[in-house]
Task: structure prediction
Amino acid sequence: MRYKGIIFDLDGVICHTDHYHYLAWKQLADKIGVYFDETINNRLRGVSRMDSLEIILERWTGEPLSGEEKEQLADEKNTIYKELLKQMSPKDLSPEVKETLEHLRTRGLQLAIGSSSRNARFILGQIGLGDFFDAISDGNNITKSKPHPEVFLMAADYLKLKPSDCLVVEDAKAGIDAAKAAGMDSAAIGDAFGYSQATYNLFTFSKLIQICSAQ
Ligand code: B16
Ligand code: MG
Result:
């Protein structure tokens, strides 16, 4: 097989927490009087919590905020977001994603998560995949967010695989760029579909089986 491991982004690939991110940021933005909409929210895909806040604060017109104040705002958003995540359950994992993951495992592939989120383990638990992946590289083990390759290089390292043996599945252009910077092939889905830097485009998640079956 062409690959030995697959590294999956979480939000926008395995499940959809993007709307919860939107609702939580929107609540915070409304509170501090900053304009925020779905288009701005799209720029937050794959971006770390603090970098997301910086994007939202591009429209902030008040006095410059201190690092501590920014941390407080990010914490406030995360509290709202985590409360929303409690609604998630195994019903938020689509049968197509579940069956494809199980099939890929039976083919002997190593499967990992490569997510910018610091809530990745909680989300995986909510959707019933708490013990499924062979490795999890997330926002808690990285210092630089996508498009920096760190999150995927760490995932490959946890799997004990060379980057060139790994395929990354991503919904964010920043994530596709991160895969390329890591020396990994990538498959773009959702918002990243059609992005020129991706190795493959996934019209549907199950198309991964075909890609991985090729020599
Ligand atoms: P948290 P992914 C990313 O997840 C989200 O796409 C992005 O919108 C979010 O800001 C980031 O995680 C950090 O999330 O606040 O939970 O640490 O797409 O890399 O799985
Ligand atoms: Mg994503």
Summary: Residues 9-12, 21, 44-49, 52, 78, 115-119, 139, 172 surround 1,6-di-O-phosphono-beta-D-glucopyranose (ligand 1) (CB under 6 Å). The mean pLDDT is 96. The longest strand covers residues 110-114.
